Prior knowledge:
With 203 residues, the protein is α+β, with helices and mostly antiparallel strands.
Amino acid sequence: MKVKVTLPENNSDITLLQFQKYEKLTKKKGLTSNEFSKRAVSIFSNLKYNDLQGVKLSDFTDIVEQITKALNTEIEFKNRFNLEGVEYGFIPNLNDITTAEYVDLVEYDTKPETLNKVMAILFRRIEAEDVFGNYSIINYTGTKETSQIMLQMPMNIVNGALVFFSNLSKELRIAIQKSTQKEIRRVQKLRDTLKNGAGMPQL
């Protein structure tokens, strides 16, 4: 019986859930090269692990090469996508990110196993859009409702969002460092004032 094999052509054909499974596989110890390849093929195709025993070696090699190529073929980032009939949009303005959003982003970090929660923060359902394509998203109420849905989002969207998240983290760290340095200077000035006998400043 012939089986039609479905394979990804690039990272837009790979879901976040598949990526998480693959990352977990790469950390699994005790697998031979052949076992690893068969498990990877099973993750990224519609073929079950046991069904791969009957696949011709030449065909199996081609399948592995196609999956490897797909994993390394990047498709440009888009700030919105449709999933299960719902359109999701990336946070329109990262400068307006809320404390709750930032705290949860820091907590989940960018570990593969929590990426679906990170995506549930960065992407939310679009609630309104104007004629120029500008949109607004629903308010952030946590990740419980959509984190499981985000497991099916394509990896090109995930990868692009992580670039923005990385830049945001750098900007926030710089802002925090500047604020901390300003406070250090203020405390040092206060110490110098007390040391010079000016007395305790009035509160």
